[in-house]
Design goal:
Shape: elongated
Radius of gyration: 21 Å
Distance between the termini: 21 Å
Number of strands: 15
Order of helices and strands: EHHEEEEEEHEEHEHEEHEEEHH
Bound molecules: uracil
CATH topology of the largest domain: Alpha-Beta Plaits
Largest sheet: 9 strands, mixed
Helix content: 10-25%
CATH class of the largest domain: Alpha Beta
CATH architecture of the largest domain: 2-Layer Sandwich
Number of domains: 3
């Protein structure tokens, strides 16, 4: 069962707020009866009509994009800057998709884009501990004690980061910089940058190589691909949604 306004919004007919207004205005019928109660819940079997027209629930779609630098991980931007969803719109994706979590404006790499709010919420829930792998180019020469700090968790202003995997990939003595690969499962705001600031090696460049088991190998910045059904299922499993998966309608996908 889902809230009526959510079902209308997912059909692509209106935003959640507009859908609520439509309900209050008496434009929505459930099983041929006008419903003005915002809390009303409906199931797949209920007939929902807006202004007498049956609404089709939007099909679920799942993509992974190689997010380029210089775009915002959002659906729209008040300052009219490029947003990551623009790359999909330009290639004809019309569903009401959004990014799962965010990468900073200057950060590149793997980002999932979908219209499946349930999966997005599960993936972003801290209890589900989805691994994210980052390749970091940072200032200075990173040594084993720096790596130990990253691995054992770092005290930031208001929390301590969980244990992380961290390996030194390369050092550039001439330019006094290092490359580190780090795996974390949290997603605090600017987390990797803050962690590297804390060990005295500010980030110069950051790329997310992997989100869960998904990478963007073969995708140029701004390119995306549809996830395969088995990848979507695996994400559900990793997001600890296994039990509910059998009730979930991915047949159309
Ligand atoms: N850590 C950051 O600092 N920025 C990101 O975009 C992702 C992780």
């Amino acid at each position: 069962m889902e809230r009526l306004q959510k079902v209308i919004a997912r059909s692509g007919k209106a935003s959640r707020r507009k859908a609520e207004q439509m309900i209050v205005d008496g434009r929505v019928k459930v099983n041929h009866k006008v419903v003005t109660e915002l809390g009303t819940k409906v199931s797949h079997n209920d007939l929902v009509e807006v202004d007498g027209v049956k609404i089709e629930s939007e099909e679920k779609v799942y993509f992974i994009i190689n997010k380029p630098a210089g775009c915002i991980s959002a659906v729209k931007d008040d300052l009219d800057r490029k947003v990551v969803v623009d790359y999909l719109r330009e290639k004809g994706v019309t569903e009401r998709v959004f990014p799962v979590g965010r990468l900073d404006y200057d950060v590149t790499g793997a980002l999932i884009i979908t219209n499946d709010g349930d999966l997005a919420n599960l993936l972003m829930h801290p209890n589900n501990e989805i691994d994210k792998v980052y390749l970091v180019r940072c200032d200075g020469i990173v040594d084993s004690s720096d790596l130990m700090k990253l691995r054992s968790g770092i005290e930031l202003d208001d929390y301590k980061t969980s244990k992380a995997k961290a390996t030194l990939v390369s050092v550039d003595k001439k330019n006094k910089s290092s490359q580190v690969r780090i795996t974390i499962h949290e997603g605090k705001y600017h987390q990797v940058k803050l962690m590297f600031d804390a060990i005295g090696h500010p980030v110069k460049k950051l790329r997310r190589e992997k989100y869960a088991f998904l990478d963007v190998v073969g995708l140029k910045p701004g390119e995306f691909r549809r996830l395969k059904i088995h990848e979507v299922k695996k994400l559900y499993v990793q997001a600890k949604f296994k039990d509910k998966l059998k009730h979930y309608d991915l047949r159309k996908y």
